[in-house]
Amino acid sequence: MWLVQLSVKKTMDQIDPKWFEEHEKRNQQLRETGIILANGAFADGSGGCIIYDCTKEEIASLIQEDPLVVHEVVDYDCKEWDAIFSTKIQ
């Protein structure tokens, strides 16, 4: 499992809104397949996190294909994560 933190590095006037739409559409598809377990933006607008369930070989391409990475909107930090989830998570 991988925890990827995305940090916005451009101002909003430098960002095409369609890039966020493409990012969210892709994340929805990956959630439906179970590759993304959770994702979301930080309340302060500085970025967000994504939890991926994939192999070490897959994570690099998943990150590099993210529209926000492709368009250099965000920097990212990726860490392998041995998470333990509460049974209360739905």
UniProtKB/TrEMBL annotation:
Q: What is this protein called?
A: YCII-related domain-containing protein
| PANTHER family for this protein | GSR2449 PROTEIN, YCII-RELATED DOMAIN-CONTAINING PROTEIN
Q: Which organism is it from?
A: Geobacillus genomosp. 3
| InterPro entries (UniProt xref) | Dimeric_a/b-barrel
Superkingdom of origin = Bacteria
